[in-house]
């Protein structure tokens, strides 16, 4: 909860005095005002899932709501067709809300991104109500394709985080958790190409691409013992030949690598690439490795913002546990390497269902999910306000922006 009392804050030449209690009340009033719109947004996205990079209708719904709330859309928009950038206010402290809205194939919003989207938008709308009093700019960034190519990394590359002082979002989950990390991750598509031949009449004339893949996969399996602790390598064969009596001309695989940090991920990538090259060398095939989207860095959650979020959520009756263990992977990790960030998990009853299952998706428009949106909106907004009102934190965050 934002502590009671008065704080003085410089904004330009003026000194602004704001009541922290009044700010908290304004956040609650704003989230209640926008509650019907936020729940409509969540339910519409949930009922109309779109895959990463194809979230045209979700992005349109978000743009419409932000436009209604008076947000300005920058002349320069992200290159991705389903990304967006909008802002409210003109203060020097820029608070970015990262909005995710992509779904998974066949099982829809099995990671709860409709909840993620609505809670981030809700926090932005709440902060807009106090932007002038706090001397902040609220920046909403629509970030597509978290499940696949990592839209946040693209927005970083395009410069949309250069003016950001802090960034935040909340993620749907079975319980409230703050402080968690994530694993760095990368994915590659692998192609071996050889030469076809009759498998019985002239096998010596062929160059077996499947052999290359088998050698590479065996080398990767043997290499696991020497990898950094916490490393995960997953590989599937996506093409291994067309007929049993034909030496396979082509073999394809998809490999995913995860590690506790981006530095350790580089070690894994080097090891895996050499295993793939070994398969090509042993078989005489050519090798082509194509990254699938952006590499994801590990998530670093800011201690002050985490504590402020937890305090705000506890004050409205939610039980938020601290757990620093890494969970899966997210491109919010890339953002957190750049600016102070939080990515708490906001919980609701999913009857034990795990992320990325149809069972989890079924609870995405439940009453519990709806309440998580409203509470998460308030918690994120309150954390940003706590930082804006704390003179030392404000200086720290502004210093990060100007580096």
From TrEMBL:
This is Peptidase M20 domain-containing protein 2. NCBIfam families: amidohydrolases. The lineage of its organism: Bacteria, Bacillati, Actinomycetota, Actinomycetes, Micrococcales. InterPro entries: Amidohydrolase, Peptidase_M20, Peptidase_M20/M20A_hydrolases, Peptidase_M20_dimer, Xaa-Arg_dipeptidase. Belongs to the peptidase M20A family. It holds the Pfam family M20_dimer. Residues 190-280 form the Peptidase M20 dimerisation domain.
